[in-house]
């Protein structure tokens, strides 16, 4: 099993609970993750309802298939981390690599302290500068989140993982 000292700066996944459903969400995500990786480590972050998931085995595909196989009633999103770091441009560039040019949906969840440093229109402008067009209707999406002073992102097709839960894979 991983210990807290073994954890890298960047998690493999981020899971976010619905409001006031943190303990139930933890149970849901634990069942989903530990079924495929019993040695994974789920860390409750300092942000309410935000869980950082570190996998012992490099089995993100098996984990994501499991995420999609169940209906998560207490989670709002499960984000597999494709790119991570403190350089916003680098993180976004890496996530855009797998998306076809054209229309994409941008989902941004910045937390303190980066919430007051970076504005969503700056992120939008950066993505547009790479030749993408932003829309709310595309099934292709880029999700950008922040944990402390680190940006994490993923991109792909939006999929449902529960009544109020989405993921991108």
How would you describe this structure in keywords?
169 residues, alpha/beta, ten-stranded mixed beta sheet, 4 helices
Short description:
The protein has helices at residues 22-36, 60-69, 88-96, 120-129; strands at residues 13-17, 41-44, 50-54, 75-80, 83-85, 103-109, 133-134, 140-147, 150-160, 166-168. The chain has 169 residues and is α/β, with parallel strands linked by helices.
Would you mind describing this structure in some detail?
The chain has 169 residues and is of the alpha/beta class. It folds into two domains: 4-81, PDO, CxxC motif (Alpha-Beta Plaits), CATH 3.30.70; 83-158, THUMP fold, CATH 3.30.2300. The protein is built from four helices and ten strands; from the N terminus they run βαββαββαβαββββ. It has helices at residues 22-36, 60-69, 88-96, 120-129; strands spanning 13-17, 41-44, 50-54, 75-80, 83-85, 103-109, 133-134, 140-147, 150-160, 166-168. Strands 1, 2, 3, 4, 5, 6, 7, 8, 9 and 10 form a ten-stranded mixed beta sheet that branches. A hairpin with a 2-residue loop joins strand 8 and strand 9 (150-160). The model has no long low-confidence stretch (mean pLDDT 95).
Give a topology summary.
Layout: E1 13-17, H1 22-36, E2 41-44, E3 50-54, H2 60-69, E4 75-80, E5 83-85, H3 88-96, E6 103-109, H4 120-129, E7 133-134, E8 140-147, E9 150-160, E10 166-168
Parallel strand pairs: 4-10, 6-7, 6-8
Antiparallel strand pairs: 1-3, 1-4, 2-3, 5-9, 8-9, 9-10
Helix pairs in contact: 1-2
